[in-house]
Amino acid sequence: MNTQLSAIAGKLNAYRLSQKPTQIIKEVYKGIFQADFYKSIWDEPVLLALQEFVDRDPPNQEVYSAELAFIKNRTAQVVAINDLFAAFLFLTREDLTTVGARIPDQPKASQALALLQANGCLDKIRRSSSQPREKLAAFVDELRKQVPSISEMLTSCFDALCARQELGTVKCLLITQPHRTGVVLPVRTMLQPGSGEVKTVVTTQETFLSAVVRARGALQSRGWLGTDQDIIFSADQTDATYSGSSITVGAAMAMYSSGRKWQFDPYTAFTGDIDIRDNQWRILRVEGIPEKLSAARHAGIRRVVLPRQNQTDVPPDCTGLQLVLVDDIKELLSNLTLSQDAAPADTVQQRKIALMHAHCSAQGSQVSAARSIQNGLQFAITPAIDDELTISIYNTGAHTPKQHQKSQFNKLLALLNGCDAPDTPLQSVQKTFNIKNTELREQIKRQFEALRPSEIRTEQYCDYSFTYENGKEKLVVKQYTSGKLQLQGYAGPLYRHALEIIIPQYNLHFPTATLNIADYLSSAKQEVNTKPKEAAPEVAIALPHIGTDESGKGDYFGPLVIAGVWVDESLQNSLAQLGVRDSKELSDRRCQELASAIREICPGKYQVVIEISPEKYNQLHEQLLREKRNLNHLLAWGHARAIESLLTRQECKQAIADQFGDEKYITSKLMEKSRAINLLQTPKAERFIAVAAASILARDHFLNRLSQLSKEAGFNLPKGASPEAITTARQIIQKHGADVLRKYAKLHFKTTASVLAQQ
User: Fold this and answer.
1) % of the chain exceeding 90 in pLDDT
2) Tens digit of pLDDT for each residue in 536-585?
3) Which residues pair with 638 in a beta bridge?
4) Do strands 229-235 and 181-193 pair parallel, antiparallel, or not at all (unpaired)?
């Protein structure tokens, strides 16, 4: 804060406490009107005090009407911007777009905030481990990009806010005597090497000095402050002589700020005593809560930390104040220094729907009510001019279409496409922490519970076992009674969220710890995609053509399914817009969603699915063995049948299949009339849209049949050929007998030998 502004702030404070302010009034008006200095004021506490001053002792209205109108408008702007800053930091119940709508003459601010909320940008900033000032800087930067017209206002308010902040400084709420007036008093501490002595550079009474000493003791008891540091304590001068114990909590936070290099936000004020109760340092009740809260509201404070014991002293009307009631310093620091966003993050589907609404609102387009479709929701986007666009957003978070020939729709689709790339890449997770402290374990557990696990299991030797799923992500969190906390699964954003719960809590509990979230994520990123991808040879295939693929070949239970899809240029483009790709890259749910969409785009004459049930598969495989032929002949037969079936419905001269052997395997199985087709077998054939679509249809059919077979068997038949498959097969044999297994499983798998080994 510059010298002239500091002088005016001091005079306004003196005016509030003075009984004979005539001389002060003259000095204030001279200071603000000289050279139009009032136009350069963006500091909220000064403007609030100035507005109160003008209302109580106004100058000549005829002479200064324009100046007074300017001050009133500037105050409204600055209060609205600071309301927005505080709402962003504190995660208030009021939606940011509602707060943004109150900024005078800035109608686009609310729309920009809706977009930033919907695309996850604000959540990313909020959940970071950065300090409040750094978070606000990132927020201001993002909002300035969206609304250039608000840039000067945002920057000026942020700069004024930063000018008031410094390490070791916090705001305390006190009562002055004898008039019991509440005041907001900035207090400052500085630490220097020494023997732990407390030195104050303001006039104080013994009760005040004793309060500062108790604050020091409470911090030292938890390791947040060293015993070899002298504490130099000061406060802004007023006419009052400082006394009482209300300053103790604020003094402790000022010392914490100096010692731990943590800068508290300027919207928070503290009041409360600290003393030992039942062998523990506790935050205790103080007097004058109504007067202190009134002073806080007049000074632009939005959050007040006070003892829980004072809860009954809080007046009914505390509009505009967020109250943080605490019993001890650990609870206080958890509330103020750790991210409080423990609520489950929006699913990708929810984010996309919110983003769609925000974008359409900004563009003036209408969005229909959601229409339920299989595994998702569908919306019609209707602009003022032009045809409407239909968008399907599935439960997994996927959406269609991916692109559009019209630029106005492509902007929206590009925003939705951006939601598909998580900030934290999906990766295999296998991390373990040692959490032996009971209090810390309970705090971490509460935050994981707040994330609403998709599954909670009771396991031997575990305090808890939580499973979280979101789209392709799956993360299992287990706290063992031994103290080991294990994270395991395949996740990206979920993994980061788990680290954001564990690491800050651990560092707060053990002040000398230096765990860093970025270290865990950077090491994980280095493990991702370490194997170079084999580049598939580029091959040009004329349209139309047929693509075939199979599913179930590597699954012990369930059928072998082969599918084929015929595409021309139009169908290929439509499938590409759906986001069709190799089914092995998709979750089961996404496969089923896309399969439904593919069947709509490619009705019966364009696609075919052939199923070889487990029982039929076993018969054919036994026949092949007798004929001294291998599984490739069975696969070739299935692919050939799919191609032939499509050729009876559509003309075509080209077909593509994934390479599983000599292409003669398939051509030899084609009937005479179909052998003229040009067949290409190539590695990674799923890069062709027709083959990828066939792989999705085949996998969808396999999953549906596996579910039906599970109901028939009375057991959940697992995919793959894992140890779980062995266990399930033994259960089937135990219940139905060994002969029944051939109805559900492919018996030539080595799994069968393991199943029968102990029967």
Assistant:
1) 36
2) 445 567 889 999 999 998 899 999 999 999 998 888 888 887 778 888 77
3) none
4) antiparallel
Which of 67-76, 519-528, 703-712 has the lowest average pLDDT? 519-528
Among positive and negative, which fits the CA dihedral 405, 408, 412, 417? positive
**436: domain CATH number?**
3.30.310.10
* Cα–Cα distance, 457 to 472 (Å, whole number): 21
Q: What stretch of H or E contains 75?
A: helix 61-90
> Which tens digit of pLDDT belongs to each residue from 509-531?
998 888 888 888 755 544 444 34
CATH of the domain at 379: 3.30.310
Residue with structure tokens 């769609």?
Answer: 356
Q: What range defines the domain where residue 180 resides?
A: 169-337
> What pLDDT shows up at residue 531?
40
For residues 378 and 358, the answer to whether their CB atoms sit within 8 Å is no
Residues paired with residue 609 on neighbouring β-strands, in sequence order: 563
* Residues 575 and 630 grouped into a single domain: yes
Q: What are phi and psi of 185, to 5 degrees?
A: -115, 110
CA separation for the pair 75, 400 (Å, rounded): 47
Report pLDDT digits (tens) over 611-625: 999 999 999 888 888
Residues 133, 257 share a domain: no
Last residue of a domain, one of 525, 558, 586: 525
Whether cis (ω within 30° of 0) applies to the bond prior to 544 is: yes
Say if CB 342 and CB 445 are below 8 A apart: no
Q: Which helix (H) or strand (E) holds 713?
A: helix 689-713
Query: Quick one: average pLDDT of 317-322?
Result: 86
pLDDT at 94: 62
Considering only CA atoms, which of 346, 348, 379, 382 is closest in space to residue 365? 382
- Count CB neighbours of 298 within 10 A: 15
- Least Cα distance to 743 among 720, 717, 718, 713 occurs for 713
* Mean pLDDT for the chain overall: 85
Length of the chain equals 759
User: pTM of this prediction?
Assistant: 0.64
What's the CA gap between 361 and 351, in Å, rounded? 15
Cα angle for residues 373, 379, 384 (degrees, 5° grid): 160
CA distance linking residue 725 with residue 745, whole number of Å: 10
Q: Kindly list the distances between the CA atom of residue 729 and the CA atoms of 145, 340, 711, 718, 749, in Å, as whole numbers in the listed order.
A: 60, 47, 14, 10, 12
- Is there a contact between 678 and 654 (Cβ–Cβ < 8 Å)? yes
Instruction: Look at residue 336 and give its three-state secondary structure.
Output: helix
Contact 192, 233 (CB under 8 A): no
Residues facing 358 on adjacent strands: none
CA distance 539 to 64: 80
The Cα 186–Cα 180 span in angstroms is: 18
- Cβ atoms 372, 394 nearer than 8 A: no
pLDDT at 184 over 80: yes
Query: Of 306, 337, 368, at which residue does a domain stop?
Result: 337
Distance of CA 699 to the CA centre of its chain: 31
Better-predicted residue by pLDDT, 683 or 642: 642
Query: H or E segment at 191?
Result: strand 181-193
Least confident range from 16-30, 477-491, 729-743: namely: 16-30
619 C-beta neighbours (distance < 10 Å), count: 13
pLDDT of 329 reads: 92
How far apart (Å, rounded) are the C-alpha atoms in residues 322 and 313? 15
227 contact partners, CB below 8 Å, separation of at least 6: 196, 220
User: pLDDT tens digits, residue range 422-471?
Assistant: 778 888 899 999 999 999 999 999 989 888 888 888 888 899 999 998 77
Residue 492 lies in a domain: yes
- pLDDT tens-place string over residues 138-160: 999 999 988 888 889 999 999 99
Angle at 161 between CA 157 and CA 165, to 5 degrees: 165
Q: How many domains does the chain have?
A: 5
Of all helices (H) and strands (E), which one includes residue 31?
Answer: helix 22-33
